[in-house]
Amino acid sequence: MTAFTIGVFASLLLYFIVGNYVGKAVKDVNDYYVSGRRAPVILITGSLVASFLGTGVFMGDCGESYMGFMTSILVVSVMACAGYPLGSALFGRYVRRSEALTIPEYFSKRFCDKKIQVLAGLITVVICFIYMLSVMDGLSTLMAQIMPFSRHTCLVIAWVTFTFFTVFAGSKGVLITDTIMFGVFSAAIIVAVPEVAIAAGGWFNGIEALATKDLGVQGMLAFGGNLEWMYDDPWKNFAWAVIYGVVWMLVVSVSPWQSSRYLMAKDEHTVIRSAGWSCIAVLFLNTIVLFAPVLVRVANPDIDPYSTVMIYAAKHLMPTWAGVLLVTGIVAAGISSASTFLSLIGFSVVNDIMEVRDHDKSLKVSRIAMLIISVLILIVSWYKPPMIWWMTQVSSSIVAASWGFVAFASVWWKNFTKAGAFWAMLLGFLCSFGIRMYTLSTGTTLPVPLDPFMVGVYASLIGGILGSKLTSVTPEEREQLAKLHMIPNVEKNAAEIRKTKLMGYALVGSGVVLALFLLIFYTIPYSAAV
Amino acid sequence: MEHFLAIFLGVWISLFGIFFVMALNKEHAKYGLDQDKASDNGRGEGRS
Question: What ipTM was estimated for this complex?
């Protein structure tokens, strides 16, 4: 058994033990769905970041960066981070205030309508299912590269681990294991990136080599990136990146796998502070990890398949202990995302679609439903060819198109009616999903203004505005909106308010630090070398 | 153009930080929860 196999098995065993321990403390559906609404900043932050950074980043985004698309991916990931302050201030805290068990239930409470809860529940199931398939692809591909087992055996090993603690311990288990995994992959990134830079002859030598040598791909660090990868014009690539930056910002703001974490926060200050810390953590981790695959190209420009670039780095470009930490970190990122998605699918099926209201029954039914869904995901993953990066893009653009407008308008547009919300969600979903399936099945690349996300947004806006103009807000809906805007007494604490505002100033500072980092470590040495 | 990228991304995050503070300030002012007015025991003067 290699050190990699031992390291991965040891980490999986740890999550297994922790899940088992936490699961025993789950007493009712409130514990199971929203961890008793007592989670502190550290657990919400850990879960927000761990749900967001999965194999899609370590294998999908890193693979794209290795192929010369780093600048576009960097734009997308940094713009996405803005979704934390935006989402928590304008949506997340209101979701927490509604005391719903799931995000679809929030929509139902807000619009006094069960139909929208079922629709939002179905969309959650579809999106999380697609996203989970991409995570399963990433996990099995990664594990098969470093362990002496087939891809299918690795699939089962990973599946057993996260299915056990997610089904048994629910959100309580997911929050704690997510936070541990957040620690593991953060340490992995902090250790691995300098090691890769050393292997490339040092950070600045690596940047110079990328600017001046022929490494198989042109424009690795140029503004428009590799012009043979997606669009042949730098500004088209930038436009694509800005659009997907907005898509991912909306995903971070309102997607069920991010905003549902706020339901578990102990108060609204916890919501806002965890969002701030998550923004800083993702900004830092995602930015530096994208430079690793670019520098790997200096050491080896011929890695195939390109999505395994970080696995190659772990095996060949760093000491064994650092490689084990990196691989364990990537597995942790995948498992943490998978557990969050599985729990969301299970909760939505039971609470939003089946509408099991008997609390004694609900816990048991939730566990059984989650297990059945998990088996289904395993079966599909078993037969489906891996396609990590595009699947994360598919699910992100669908959620952003169908929920983005509805989520913010549900809090901030007083004339938004239940019919408007329903049609906005349905049309956004159908248009973005349908067009995405068309482009994927025919291999078509549409012009940027006709991107599936953009068309989904147009459809969602038309549905929302027309639906609201043709119907009227009911007194019940008006009352629900008014209740949503009443600040609970417990939140009115001067010392807490002061502390929460500090988070905003920290975000302003982190923007300045980011610009300085990019100028000093990337653009100035790159421009000097070109 | 690469310098533009670095500055654009830094400004993007900072702008949202500013928005974050402004949104909190606006809400606290609206409900009379300015730091000086709100009490430390969780019973501010804003309506609830």
Answer: 0.79
